[in-house]
Design a protein that fits this description.
Length: about 270
């Protein structure tokens, strides 16, 4: 039990104190002052928020400049310059993702992240996410397919569109990264009575059963992820938190032979 006493946060734990002699039996009371830990957590959240803002602003300008060079708006580039600009572009995008993940995780930990749900068409949200990922999938020669329900033109859900797009972006980009070239990635939508679901299935390297339990924990990275890609290990933890804020759930299914499928659900109506 947490108690706020005169500006101090105290953790109070009580338990029975057994004794053979009934007259000596009683209760053990353990009081721990958590004020220092609480202050450290407050400073950490402030630091992450401040650094995130201070880094995002100049990085946005850097990305804009790189995009101008990449689009030949500042003159033509030779082959060597094209390669250099592409490396800059990829790494600036990676850095922006890392910053965004840290800021989002800080907001989730502190309870500051809020969702603004509305009645939206899940098919349209997923279609946009697949379209946005088509370029990255094409670079690795993947077949990225959108599989829609046969009996519905729309699947309405009660959700925050930008946050759902964030979850989809993370799942699809992971599928693209961890699937060897010439792979297959299917994004399937199913409409249920109370909840609709989205599944991102790939033909990639799979995830060992012993590693699946930690997938949605902060900073957790699989052995394959540590060997082949960068990242903070926050993407799936953030995705789970966003889905749970909606009242849904997210699960992983992988047998380490036929790829991996991540499935998450969203409510059809307000809960």
């Amino acid at each position: 039990m947490l108690v706020d006493s005169g500006g101090h946060q105290l953790a109070v734990t009580a338990g029975p104190f057994p004794d053979p002699g009934p007259s000596r039996a009683g209760v053990i009371l353990l009081i721990r002052d958590l004020s220092a830990e609480a202050e450290a957590e407050r400073v950490k959240r402030y630091f992450v928020s401040m650094v995130g803002h201070e880094l995002r602003t100049p990085l946005t300008l850097i990305r804009t400049t790189i995009d101008l060079l990449h689009g030949h708006h500042a003159g033509g580039l030779n082959a060597t310059q094209e390669r250099i600009v592409e490396v800059l572009r990829q790494n600036s995008e990676r850095l922006m993702t890392l910053i965004s993940d840290l800021v989002d995780m800080s907001a989730l930990d502190s309870g500051r992240m809020q969702i603004v749900p509305a009645s939206v068409d899940l098919i349209e949200i997923v279609r946009r996410a697949v379209r946005a990922a088509a370029g990255a999938a094409g670079e690795r020669k993947h077949q990225l397919r959108l599989v829609l329900p046969e009996d519905a033109n729309t699947v309405m859900v009660w959700a925050d569109t930008p946050r759902v797009e964030q979850v989809l972006s993370n799942l699809i980009s992971n599928a693209i990264k961890y699937t060897p070239p010439n792979g297959e990635i299917d994004v399937r939508i199913e409409g249920g009575r109370a909840f609709a679901s989205v599944a991102v299935a790939d033909s990639g390297i799979g995830i060992p059963p012993e590693e699946q339990a930690g997938l949605f924990e902060k900073f957790y990275r699989t052995s394959a992820g540590r060997r082949t890609t960068g990242g903070t290990g926050l993407g799936l933890a953030i995705a789970r938190s966003i889905v749970e804020l909606h009242g849904g759930e997210i699960v992983c299914d992988s047998d380490e032979q036929t790829g991996t499928t991540f499935t998450f659900t969203l409510p059809r109506r307000p809960l």
